[in-house]
Design brief:
Blueprint lengths: L1 H20 E4 L18 E4 H16 L2 E12 L4 H15 L5 E6 L2 E9 L2 H10 L8 E8 L11
Antiparallel strand pairs: 1-2, 3-5, 3-6, 4-5
């Protein structure tokens, strides 16, 4: 009986403390440029510090325009004619695959041509297999890739 009363008092104290920490949040007011307006439709019960962390994370994500992913490296060379060779390889690739992003990099003393913005290694592997005859030395490298463009699928009623 004594333990039951102590446990009951402890539960009442803890529940009162927890309800004092919770704040009723009706969502952030986002800019019109934000495509996901889900925040305006949510009714979330949580600590106000969590909302601050969520806002900080969203701001950080807006600043960072890249993510970890993969690219295919189709040329790597140095020397007198390396720059011309890299441009030739890039142009040759773009003539066959105009929709695939191509990057010409210079990391002293080498010129590098990389292609694509693949989120998974399997996507990069598919492209590598399709390039096997034209670029047999192509290989997959981990790289920071551009974020994919989001489609705005909202409808105006």
């Amino acid at each position: 009986m004594k333990y039951t009363i102590i446990l009951l008092l402890l539960l009442i104290t803890v529940s009162g403390y927890c309800s004092g920490l919770q704040a009723r949040v009706l969502g952030y007011q986002l800019n019109e440029a934000d495509s996901l307006m889900i925040w305006n439709k949510l009714d979330i019960q949580c600590d106000a510090r969590i909302n601050d962390l969520l806002r900080q994370q969203a701001d950080q994500n807006k600043k960072n325009s890249s993510m970890s992913g993969f690219r295919l490296q189709i040329y790597f060379g140095s020397g007198e004619n390396a720059h011309k060779q890299a441009i030739r390889i890039k142009t040759e690739f773009l003539s066959s695959y105009p929709d695939v992003k191509t990057y010409l990099l210079f990391k002293s003393p080498d010129f590098i041509v990389r292609i694509g913005n693949f989120r998974t290694k399997s996507e990069a592997l598919k492209m590598q297999k399709s390039l096997l005859f034209k670029f047999p030395n192509a290989f997959i490298v981990a790289d920071e890739i551009a974020l994919p463009e989001l489609l705005n699928l909202t409808t105006n009623n």
